[in-house]
Amino acid sequence: MKQTTNSILMIRPVAFRMNEQTAVNNYYQKVLDGLLPATVNAKAQQEFDTFVEKLRAVGVDVTVVDDTLDPDTPDSIFPNNWISFHQNGDVALYPMFAENRRNERREEILDLLEEKGFEINNIVDYTSAEEDGFFLEGTGSLLLDRANSKAYCALSPRADEELFIEFCEDFDYAPVIFEAFQTVGSERKLIYHTNVMMCLGETFAVICSDCIDDKKERKMVLDNLKENNKEVITISEDQVNNFVGNMLEVRGADDKRYLIMSAAAHQSLTAEQIEKLEKHAEILSSSLDTIEACGGGSARCMMAEIFLPRV
């Protein structure tokens, strides 16, 4: 199984703004005072377009789908939470915590991918769990080590343990389960998505091990990564706040590996971390300041990796 892909799905926003329904447990979101909604959306579109341009310039195959004004989906720019694509032609659809995010699931996106020559054999649909109040938000909640058939998941209101185990059974992954926390005011609160504090590359892993408060769990997660010969590069909680954990390794032209991140993430890496990362992949960054502030997500969340076979 491949760990990285050259093909990415991205959704261009039309009414991007801070989503009040996700802010209840995404503590990375901020209100940008004094900016009109239209201005926020225009800035987000500009950041999105520049980002796509940079990816395409190095040979990443980006499928861009425009969002629609109706229904209202302020977070549609983060498609990796509702869908994942797999090498055997399976597509998984995920149950979403915020009601207005459930409208992001659009069947015509699958039709479009098939028109582009991707093969979809089977849809595994977990969305009925929403009715019972259980959620698992795609590769935000699940970090897939596809090559080693392991899935990492930090449990949270958006990542249910039983659902995660069900996913692992369906897709043949060994589950690695833990809890990750961030400091909010004077409290330690669960981090809403695993991919904020951790990134898995082919030959490396970036992780904020300080977020895993339980020492046994922390050791277990690090042991799992080392067992698969990943170079573990640790980051600080302050760096997590700058979305350093929210990165993705992709392949460009000639199968070259790139590590994609935001400008804010890139700027908050130390020289030593950059040196370690660049042994594995070339860093490619783009400014996503508006998207990060209002959306509480960054580069990784904006890219749904397409591993589907080609017809």
UniProtKB/TrEMBL annotation:
It holds the Pfam family DDAH_eukar. This is Amidinotransferase. It comes from Flavobacterium weaverense.
